[in-house]
Amino acid sequence: MASTAQRIMDYINNNGIKQRFIAKEIGMKFSTLNSKLNGKSKLTAEDIEHICWALGKSPSDFIKPRPPEGGGQNN
């Protein structure tokens, strides 16, 4: 399953959006944004919120819930 960062990267790449544009819109260094989207540093919930704002998207477009460990069955 693709990570949230990977889903955001796929959206950016598929829509011809530049990371530099997003970084400028959210007030983040390009190198920091790139590192977060490439999994080299932690992508926080706040980062996702800001990136989604710049993209005009909802965080729920990129965050997919995971089932609980054990398949969600009560033991």
Structural commentary:
With 75 residues, the protein is mainly alpha-helical. The chain has four helices and no strands. The two termini are 26 Å apart.
Unreliable sequence segments: none
- As a percent range, the share of strand residues is under 5%
Number of distinct helices: 4
Output the structural class. mainly alpha
Distance between the termini: 26 Å
Shape: globular
Largest sheet: none
Order of SSEs, N→C? HHHH
Percent of residues in helices comes to 40-55%
Number of DSSP E strands: 0
Mean pLDDT reading = 91
* Rg measurement, Å: 14 Å
In short:
By secondary structure, the chain is mainly alpha-helical. The chain has helices at 4-14, 19-26, 30-37, 45-55.
Task: Please describe the topology of this protein.
Blueprint: H1 4-14, H2 19-26, H3 30-37, H4 45-55
Helix pairs in contact: 2-3, 2-4
Task: Sum up the structure in keywords.
mainly alpha; 75 residues; 4 helices
